[in-house]
Design a protein that fits this description.
Length: 58
């Protein structure tokens, strides 16, 4: 795998890691089992489109 770019989790295109991008660490917290972590890299525009309307938990 090329270390200079990653695949966008939204559109599937290449994300150059030396340019602006968004990293998402998604952790599934389970009360009765191990937690599960997933990492994603998104284009800033893709992240805006996906996260629009999301609310903070607090
Ligand atoms: Zn994208």
């Amino acid at each position: 795998m090329n270390t200079e770019s990653a695949t966008c989790g939204v559109c599937g295109r290449s994300v150059p890691l030396d340019q602006d991008h968004v990293k998402v660490d998604a952790e599934t917290v389970r009360t009765r089992d191990r937690n599960e972590a997933d990492d994603y890299v998104l284009h800033p525009r893709c992240a805006d489109a996906v996260f629009e309307g999301w609310r903070c938990p607090a």
